Amino acid sequence: MPLHHISLIITFVLYLIALIVIGYLGEKKYSGTYEDFVSAGKSLGFFVTALSAAASSESAWVMLGLSGLGYSKGVVAYWAAIGCVFGYLINWLFVIAPVRRISGEVNALTLADFVENTLNDKKHFLRIIGSVVVVFFMLVYVISQFIGAGKTLHGMGLTTYENGVLIGSIIIGAYVLMGGYAAVCWTDALQGVLMAGIMIGIPIFAIFKAGGILNVFHMLQNMGMASLFNLKNATLWGSLGFIFGSLGIGLGYQGMPHVVIRYITVKDEREGKISGLVATLWGVFVLFGSVTLGLCGRVLFSSLKDPEQVLPKFASLYLHPILAGIVLAAITAAIMSTADSQLMYAATSLINDLWLKITKKNVDEKKLVLYTRITIFLFTVIAILFAIQNVKVIYTFVLYAWGALGAAFSPMVLSILYFKRFNKWGALANLIVGPLVVVVWTSIPFLKDMLYELIPGFFVSLIAGILVSYLTDKDGGK
């Protein structure tokens, strides 16, 4: 076996061992009660909250997809980074602190608890429909991340695609099963640090290798890709559609269930506010760094067939094998930080949000932990079975999964916080109208090419929720 592969394997194995150790520590500290297992006892500080929320919200997209966008679109791709940072900023200034305060007042452990208890939904309509939406789209996300793990490990030359799926999924399932929510947050924080280090250091090194900022800009000008406002080979409306669509990505952060859960479980409002600032700064460095890497990659590799391979390509050509192993571990970290959060939240949603709260059974807490672990195991097996088949259509669902979840929950969370007359019927309209608009918009090629589906989904859902709340206000608000 080549020395390069040996170095990669050693680096990667050490990283995986670290994840298992964190899972074990989570098991020792946070598995005594059910609340500990699914929310870490609401004791997480700002650092873990910020980095775990940030890392779990981005997935491998920030490492591979966003740099690929910079490679293929040029400077105009910075609008995608701006849109994401805008999402972080809104959460920091307007969402995190009030969500933590209200969740404490209504004794909420999950987003479903937060919505139902705040809106006094005694019939559990919101819990049932919301949990179905969450479980479906979260499981789709988990499958896609397992596929990504298989492709990454295979692309590293370490194993076959099928074995890559098994290795990645088993490691994720193992530390989630052991430590629950705490293990997820701690490992995501570690992965967030790793992602930040890579996406700050590598772009700087790439600028140096590409001949400096001025040379990169000059080369992009020659390619017609140096404008922040004009998309190459696109009309004015095409450029505007891309810009507004990119900005619209930020509309999903306010209601993404596996992100909002971090704000519910942070120690207190003060820690929440600090975590919002830290997450926003993380987003600035990582997101803008990723686009910058893509721009440098365009100068260094002018004929790269797959734009999303900019980071692996750069690492393999310009970095020492050990550093390359760290980079590839960071890519896998981005995949794992999303998959573990969604796996944990999907299981919690099924056991806590649906079965326990609706049946109102008095179940021993140790049994609840066991049932949640069994659900995590079953979801992991289901995701593995789909991922091993390498079903390409899964990616079609993933394209609008963020949009569907964002259109369903972001208007709802913002309305709960800032619209006093908002009620359970308005929230029900959000859950139905938001995903429906996203699915319909995505299925019509003309509309999909014109504007990112989350934007119409978000605003139509927001308007529907407000109108329905006004019309049904006499039937009961909050």
3D architecture notes:
By secondary structure, the protein is mainly α. The chain has 2 domains: 3-391, Sodium/glucose cotransporter; 395-478, no CATH class. Helix content is 79%, strand content 0%. It contains 19 helices and no strands. The chain has helices spanning 3-29, 34-39, 46-58, 65-73, 78-105, 111-119, 125-155, 161-209, 213-223, 236-247, 257-265, 269-300, 310-318, 321-359, 365-388, 393-418, 424-443, 445-450, 454-471. Helix 7 (125-155) packs parallel to helix 17 and helix 8 (161-209) crosses helix 12. The longest helix is centred in the middle third of the chain and has 49 residues, at 161-209. The N and C termini lie far apart (64 Å). The model has no long low-confidence stretch (mean pLDDT 81).
Describe, in short, the structure shown:
The chain has helices at residues 3-29, 34-39, 46-58, 65-73, 78-105, 111-119, 125-155, 161-209, 213-223, 236-247, 257-265, 269-300, 310-318, 321-359, 365-388, 393-418, 424-443, 445-450, 454-471. With 478 residues, the protein is mostly helical. Helix 14 (321-359) crosses helix 15 (365-388).
Q: What is the overall pLDDT average? A: 81
How would the global form be characterised? globular
Identify the quaternary structure here: single chain
CATH topology of the largest domain: Sodium/glucose cotransporter
Rg computed from alpha carbons, rounded to a whole number of angstroms: 22 Å
Number of helices: 19
Order of helices and strands: HHHHHHHHHHHHHHHHHHH
- Count of β-strands: 0
Q: How much of the sequence is in beta strands?
A: under 5%
Q: From the helix content, strand content and strand pairing, which structural class follows?
A: mainly alpha
Described by strand count, sense and barrel closure, the largest sheet is: none
Q: Identify the CATH architecture of the largest domain.
A: Up-down Bundle
Superfamily at the CATH H level of the largest domain? Answer: Sodium/glucose cotransporter
Give the domain tally.
2
